[in-house]
Amino acid sequence: MLHDLVNWLLEHDVVNWLLETLGAWGYTGIFILMAMESTVLPIPSELVLIPAGYLAHKGEMNFALILLASTLGSLAGATLNYIVALWLGRPFLEKYGKYFFVRPELLRKTDQFFLKHGAISTFTGRLVLGIRHLISIPAGLTRMNFGKFSFYTCLGAAVWSLVLTLMGYFIGGNEQLIKDNLPVMTAAILGSVATILALYYFWQKRQKA
To answer: Which of 126, 150, 129 is nearest to 72 (CA)?
Structure first.
């Protein structure tokens, strides 16, 4: 579980190391770490942005620049996944997909789904743990419009970054509060995503009516 990993890292002074690292690397460090987090590397964004928010609280970093570096870093990592999926994954599945139960009809249906729902999928996917760093792969596989992909990736990444940085800004100096509030924050975000998807579903039904 991610929360168990975060708790273990908090107990082993990794936050102190990250504070020192972010202080030395600055916004470039945030950009690099968030780009790595948006690929498939196991770097929880909580361990980057909560300490960064705490440094902003102490006046050692600028809150707006943290959000900018984080959002652009997330876009860079997501774009890498998108390009790999587009240039390598798509040709591979078109040629060998039948051997992995991915037939042309399934690809066609996936293409149609992302053509209609790619925006909401990309945005909400950036807010869900375990999915946020993977949502760019189906976007690349289905050749989602890159401009739209970039916009909704940045929007979702900015919202996620804002929540974590605010958390660090207000309670980043209290490790116990972070441990206590991470599950609450995760539940709140998942609830928000569910609400957004429900509203989107009813909006789609009204459009068809």
So the answer is: 150
